Amino acid sequence: MSVTPLDILQKYWSYENFRPKQLEIISAVINKQDTFALLPTGGGKSICYQIPALLQEGIAVVISPLLSLMRDQVMQLIQRNIKALYIPGGIHYNDLDALLDNCIYGNYKLVYLSPERLQNELVLARLKQMNISLIAVDEAHCISQWGHDFRPAYRNISAFRKNFPEVACIALTATATKKVQEDIIEQLNMTEAMVVQNSFERKNLAYKVVAEEDKYGRLIQLFKKYTGSAIVYVRSRKTAQNYASFLQANGITSHYYHGGLGNGERQQRFEDWSKNKTQVMVATSAFGMGIDKADVTTVVHVELPESLESYFQEAGRAGRDGTTAQSIILYNPSDESRLANQFLNVLPAVEYVKKVYKKLNSYFQVSYGEGEQETFRFDFMEFCNTYNFKTLITYNALQLLDRNSVLVLSQEFYRKSTLQFTISPINLTYYLIKNPGIDTVVKSILRTYGGIYDQPLAIDHTIIAKKAGVPLAQIHKILLQLQVDNVALYDHKNYDSAVTFLVQREDVLTVNKISKHITAQNTRKVNQVNSIISYLNTNTICRSIQLLAYFEEKQLTPCGVCDVCIRARRKAKLVTTKMIESKIVALLQVKNHTSTSIVETLYTLEEAEIIKALKNLLATEKIQITPSNSYKLK
């Protein structure tokens, strides 16, 4: 008797039945049909390729955009006794070689890797030796320049697929307009692709836009009322730290989460939050992608998302277990200008891109007609200061050149250093006797770099750290000490960026070839920002209807739970100011109340109407304010 997809689901996931559209997608993939799966966040996309991987001979290759996403997926599979691995970043050649051997000979069912790995010759060579059963492209919107998170390396996938013409491909995403869908299918060369799409409607999720000047105070009010698991989305690391600290100071367990944290610290914070030891995670936008936490009840954006695609995906991380949940944007008029400053006022025109590209070549002294496949490391701020460039618009110009395959821009920490010992070997021996803590590092340097007494030699901190068995960060400190103690000359410079030119230098001609694409991508960004602003300011159409219309899906019935629907229902009840005043007076007959506690108690009423009623009661001297800023009857 053959094993069915449902058998696999019940055995490894302990689910009784599939979610909508999952079995349809899985069946198409098993039948070797290219498949495009468009399921909302929480729709169970990963199972759509994991089950076919288990049912078929060989190994499924999963292309995924984030290391943390790959790691989390693999850990979940291992916990279910499914053999899976991922290829991490920064791995040494020998370790990578061993990991790929495991894929070939270790009976693994899934291997996760980033799209950039498809450019690595060793990885490509080993993949060709594998019995690949399926190619799965997660977060497939990253392949489209019209998508909200375009990632140029995804364009390598179509070339990779040519090596496996008989292997089916599944592309999965939670957010894509019709134009993006068509672009994904075209870019992946999907033959007669079967498109399976589930409705974007989330009946259990209430979308709300709340006008608020005091966002900090509103968060305290929200999380004391709604005590379930929550995410607060911000746009910067500093803001994440500020909000998390504020929440902690006010008795709400909270962590901040962003790319600047070490892997161990990120993992620990995620585990605390996932096990509900921490109520609120304050995070930048990358957090949550691919994370299977079903019981999030509240998602709050205290800073505006850059597009409705981003917002819809982030909002959808609430209520994945089907229980009532909410997604709230805390918004005030100044946010609009801030959004424009962040995304619109820094869009580089074609002429500015030409200028940046030309100066970049000059900076590295690349001659006209040369530079192809050459890599240069540099300090981004130093580059901007050299040519008096503004940092954000310059970074966006480099991103456009990256997206249009003129160059590859990467952010990395790199220290270029030279070292020369300036004292004799015998005096160095005496020095080490007096300073035993650095003995191992210095001896490792001497064994690695012959002639270091005679002239400055380029050194590699990573090699020294590995040979000495010392943490990498400690190497720099020890070398600085040698410099201070006049034992050695230590010349060091830090780089935070690297650029690899993909084409030869042709200055204006290079950018002219992609000028139409630059203009189109800038226009797309303007439209995305305008769509967010329109969504915020449209207070007469159900929020769910607005969001679904953006994704070209028609919803006929208002959701009944968003802020627009609630406001309409209140108006329909004809709640007058006099009625609200009576309710406030009744509350104050029992005890004094602050405005916040009155709003919380009368939560079914519009806050603006409550404030209006309070002002009327004060004006008519029916109530007064106490020294502690609470209200009482006169």
What topology does this entry show?
Elements: H1 5-13, H2 22-30, E1 35-38, H3 47-55, E2 59-63, H4 67-79, E3 84-86, H5 93-105, E4 110-113, H6 121-129, E5 132-137, H7 157-161, E6 169-173, H8 178-187, E7 194-197, E8 205-211, H9 215-225, E9 229-233, H10 237-249, E10 254-257, H11 263-274, E11 280-283, E12 296-301, H12 308-315, E13 325-331, H13 334-344, H14 350-363, E14 375-378, H15 380-386, H16 391-403, E15 407-421, H17 425-434, H18 439-448, E16 457-459, H19 461-468, H20 472-484, E17 488-501, H21 508-512, H22 515-537, H23 543-550, H24 563-572, H25 577-590, H26 595-601, H27 607-619, E18 623-625, E19 631-633
Parallel strand pairs: 1-6, 1-7, 2-4, 2-5, 3-4, 5-6, 8-13, 9-11, 9-12, 10-11, 12-13
Antiparallel strand pairs: 14-17, 15-16, 15-17, 18-19
Helix pairs in contact: 2-3, 5-6, 13-22, 14-16, 18-19, 19-20, 25-27
Describe the structure in your own words.
This protein is of the alpha/beta class and 634 residues long. It has five domains: 5-197, P-loop containing nucleotide triphosphate hydrolases (Rossmann fold); 205-332, P-loop containing nucleotide triphosphate hydrolases (Rossmann fold, 3-Layer(aba) Sandwich), CATH 3.40.50.300; 341-406 and 502-527, no CATH class; 414-497; 575-633, Arc Repressor Mutant, subunit A (Orthogonal Bundle). Helices cover 45% and strands 17% of the residues. The protein has a seven-stranded parallel beta sheet, with helices on both faces. Helix 19 (461-468) crosses helix 20. The radius of gyration is 29 Å and the shape is globular. The chain starts with a helix and ends with a strand. The mean pLDDT is 87.
